[in-house]
Amino acid sequence: MSSRRAASWLTLAILLLATAPPAHAEGSPSPRIVVARTDAAGLAELIVACPQSPAPAPALALTIDGGSPTPPGAVVPLSVPPSLAIVVERGAGMATSGTPESTSANDALGQAELLLARMPLDAQVAVVAYAARAELLAPLGGDLAGARAALAAGQADSPATPPTGAALAEAVGLALAQLQAAPVGPRALVILAADGPGIGAALPRPADPAIAITVVGLSAAGEAELQATAAALGGVYLPYHSQDLAKLPGLIAALGARYAAITAPERLLRVTSTTAIGPGRHQIALVGCGGTADAWLRAEAPVLAWQTPALAASGGIALGLLAGRLAGGGRLTVGRRAPSPQIPAPSPQPGTDGPTERGARLPDAQHQPSYRLVVWAGERRLTHELRERQCVIGRDPGCDLQIDGPCIAALHARLTLAGDCVTLADLDSGSGTSLGPGGPRLPAHQPTEIQDGDEIWLGPEVRIALRRT
Q1: Percent of the chain beyond pLDDT 70?
Q2: pTM attached to this predicted model
Q3: Whether residues 103 and 248 fall in one domain
Q4: Lower CB density within 10 Å: C or N end of the chain?
Q5: Which helix (H) or strand (E) holds 18?
Q6: What are φ and ψ of residue 200, in 5° steps?
């Protein structure tokens, strides 16, 4: 009888949450500039969160360095998926009864499952658990099935002692770090807990106030402390515990409305200026969308502004030397150049490897930073360590990072490491290479500097994140 009642309540919860109307994540009524940059043509480009509906397009104006407001050159609507970090308690309180015929641990898994069921297929999810200490069960990624499996495994053996406030603080810090590396879009943090960390416990505040934080209390015993936790984090507290069956539909409806708000894709606008801006640091303001927002951006000098004359001059010198050698009876050969007879090639010592062409590409381990590429290609997720100065990405088996896909060229893009600088160049691929969702295509064979956390798109389907290790 008890199992049938539990199943009926779970069915009711799914129905109520599935029928809850979608809503947008909480935010300021004024516009918010998410990204400010310049595109390949030197135009100012803004990714803007507009509280008004982007259809029809709102009337906007741009002001650069305090000049006169001018209409933008283009306004393109974007729809970006959310990123979610779930923090789940593992402790003695999770074994207590939160709702009829269930434990707080089972209630946590049920709530997490309902959250994941609402997430779009292209969303990003991370899972963190905590007891005596915090543990990252699933790093931020698009593998929703893996996140479900990690949640179930994390609750399989909860310890008999309650968690500490330091463990919750560590778990929140891990979750916020994952969201910090998330792509552009709405971000949410949901904490599912039965025990509170204690009133006044020190907790890390998110650097981004736009992150929607929700604390779901799974037990009456820790409710006061969990309410204080939500207030300390600048979030919302919602209970999910009651032995009164009549109160459960109201709790479920409140949670459903909250889940709909934090899992809805965000509607953004890509706004570009009408004319290119010069190199240097500029202040740009956007007027419209119910208010005003401003940001700073740095425009770089065109890549080939000075290289072209230099390349032409060096090419003329090389042709002159070649012509002189041929005129003097020299012989032109194509292939591997033999070592100079005055400088003999080094011989490998016993027990060591000789020099190789690939080995010459290895960076200086003492000075070169370490980077990792995290790749999402459809439902597949893989990582690749950058251990050489150059990494060619493409479909060809000879590439350093081989990715199969209909939109991936045989030689698609190249990453180059030089000291602390990482550059990305498109290799004249058919589907193109861009930075960020909906970003402009990079010009072919022109290196663009990228930073830790930047998001690389190969065509419309393959996403690669650069992570410094």
Answers
A1: 75
A2: 0.55
A3: yes
A4: N
A5: helix 2-18
A6: 85, 10
